[in-house]
Amino acid sequence: MPAPGSRPVPVDDPRRRIPRTDHLLAEPAVAAASRSLGDRVVRGIVRGVQDRARREEIPPEQVLDEVLAALGDRPAASLRPVLNATGVIVHTNLGRAPLSGAARTAIAEATGYTDVEFDLATGARSRRGAGARAALLAACPAAEDALIVNNGAAALVLATTALAGTGEVVISRGELIEIGAGFRLPDLIASTGAVLREVGTTNRTHLEDYTAALGPTTGCVLRIHTSNYRVIGFTSAVPIAQLAPATREAGIPLLADLGSGLLAPEPLLPDEPDATTALESGADLVIASGDKLLGGPQAGILLGRSPVIARLARHPLARALRADKLALAALEATLSGPTPPVLASLRIDPEALRERTSALAERIGGEIIPHDGRVGGGGGAEVPLSGWAIALPAELAPLLRTGTPAVVGTVRDGSCLLDLRCIPESEDDALAAAVHSAAARSAAAAEGGTARDH
Ligand SMILES: *Cc1c(COP(=O)(O)O)cnc(C)c1O
Fold first, then answer.
1. Ligand 1 atom with least separation from CA of 224
2. Test site for ligand 1: of 177, 179, 226, most ligand atoms within 8 A of the Cβ
3. Where are the alpha helices (DSSP H) in 124-178?
4. Is the CB of 284 inside a 6 Å radius of any atom of ligand 1?
5. pLDDT at 453 exceeding the cut of 50
6. How many degrees, rounded to 5, is the angle at CA 115 between CA 110 and CA 119?
7. CB hemisphere CA count around 59 (13 angstroms)
8. What is the mean pLDDT of the chain?
9. Residue in 163, 134, 117 with CA at minimum distance from that of residue 287
10. How many Cα atoms within 13 Å fall on the side-chain side of residue 295?
11. Dist. CA 430 → ligand 1 center (Å)
């Protein structure tokens, strides 16, 4: 029955020649695609092409070819690769750390059955992710033990739940931070049932503020690195080295949430905390993300004293927050492999970047301007990383975003700025092609607009 309002299709209408769904699905190439992509996806593509033919956008004879072309281009998932031309190294909206080649290989090798929790020599069950744990301890010898969970937020929830329960988490008022998208760490901690015991003020907290708060109901003391902003001026915070003797004497664990994931000091980011220094200064436990400056997969990393890690590992919540085998594989490979892309982007030589940028500008046009890169929400708040960008007309920005590969730059003052800091040099040709294609589409649209105007 025709849909209400639509006219019946006349007998001689070309739309009657549109191939039927079952005929299209029976085509060998279409049937093969159903097996690899799934029946639902393929039926959706077939229906979409038939609809275009019904709207007379394509002739009925072209339906099969269009279906085959659509199936050929079809990625297995909807996430699209992006060339990050923002200069922001740890960009949460763009998936944070791009993985090293070693980590990508490790993931591919772990996708099938793998001995993630099994000892092949003895045939017995083994500790999950032993390789990743060993790599963490090798990279951070100041830690006695390590535990890996799903992400930094999960690590914080596990630590405060296991150490404080419904007791108090002592924390400075200067460290009650929101980390992004309205996500507040104090709310997260409170959601576990622990009670936040705020001490000090927004700009200044002293050792006595902490010691006065310690008592029988204290579960732990938490220092949080204010990773995405800086308090400057009349400020003071208590260094871990000063706090640790007091918490140790009181028998209360001292936690440091570092966020960024640096395991050792990074000379380019002197104000960024690192796990080795925090542990050597007396923290009992440090918390970090795997996909920020560490440059690995999404993971929550807990490093610290053995009895503390053991308490966390024993807690039932540890099972709910455990890391996936692919993340464990990628983390181990990141730690034991070559410098990951995040650190390469951070340490890039500005002069080499300028030469590369001007070589690309010669191919795609545009003006070179100084442009500071950023570490991103993952750390190094407000630290400018001096570099360069190519300024193109702003109207190219949406065309670049929707092209293949997608290119995301920064729109500022009427220009679309492309910063090469976070783009592997091997992608320069792809970037040039993407800009040429965007410019061609922009010119075609302008011509179309002019034609319509007349
Ligand atoms: C990023 C961050 C978190 C959260 O880590 P995720 O890995 O994003 O869950 C927690 N604390 C601090 C200080 C952070 O910077």
1. 13
2. 179
3. 130-139, 152-164
4. no
5. no
6. 160
7. 2
8. 93
9. 163
10. 25
11. 33
